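Q: Sequence in, structure out?
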Amino acid sequence: MKSIGNVIRDNYYIDKEKLKTNYEETLESNQIFKKITTKLKLPKEYLMKYTSNLIDSSSELNNCKNCKNILDCKNYFKGHVYYPEVLNDNLVFDYVPCKYQKELELKNKYKENIYLFDLPKEIKEASMKNIDLDDPERFKIIKWLKNFLDTYVPHASNKGLYLTGNFGSGKTYLISAVLNELAKKDHRVAIIYYPEFLRSLKESFNTPDTYNEKFNLIKKIELLLIDDIGAETMTEWSRDEVLGNILQYRMQEGLTTFFTSNLKVKDLEEHFSVSSKGIEKVKAKRIVERIKQLTIEMTMISENKRKWGKKNMKDDNLVKDFIDEKGEEYTVSITPSDDRDINLGNRTYKLQTPYDDKYKKIKKKGIFTSDIGIKSSGFAPIFTLALILSLSAVVIAFLLWRL
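A: Exactly. Output:
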């Protein structure tokens, strides 16, 4: 009877022979496998132990031979190949990016230069080549931005743009497209939705390090876009401690700053003047003067580029809130220049011009009533008509009874 040691030794030799046979057969039948092992320049006895890994590598490299783009990648880790490398006389395997993955990384590397706060990720994709040129109302602004892009010099007190205009006209996209082009030239950029940035900053009060990190990043970044200024809830803190300090620093350091707003600069002054202490015109004027020092004001009135009828749609201009028969709330944007149909549940709402910005919020569940600039169709008119007829019948019956 064989000892345990002898059994283990015999099995080892059997497994080793199988491994050797498998290695040699693969070497003969698989040209990619052969090229890999030849290139590694390691002893056959050593490489045999990694036969399975080397087969996986050759299989993935074979996939790469016929691959035309990263979307066609059939490898385990898309855009990468399982590849062997000799490190300190040892064989190690790692996932190495292919040429298509490298091209993609290089193409998107500029995004590392962009700090985006509470804005759609599509803003990072905004590009000058995708700007809509069909609307002549935009030409003057596009020409200004193109000139800025061509002549920009860092820390040279280049004036930015204060771009005002109607909701959904593409103000943020236009400026972001220019800033993205500069990010591709290795300039650092921040694009922030201002009302949400303030809220986030306020939440950081109890963590000074986080607060200072957020605040200083925006204050000191080379290129800054403050989106939707004037839509925030005005407080002395946000005006004097946050915005005032940011603008003062950027003026002193010659850092370019952009703004988008639905308010003209003169209206922004009124927005900043109202505080819990009353009307503070001097402090408001100080903020507005800094904005004027940093920017050139331009206005863009254009077609609303955003989608209509979308559930829970954010709007920084006029907003209609509806509650359907199931109790679901819808927020629908309204501009003074469009005639559109909005489908909510089983009802259609026809938007009509002109609109009045003094509207009432519909609060009554299950009943959609007409409102300023809105005409409803479907259940509401039928319900209203039935109600009127019922009341009329009651009145007539009462009068006949009296007679």
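The chain has three domains: 17-97, 112-300, 306-403.
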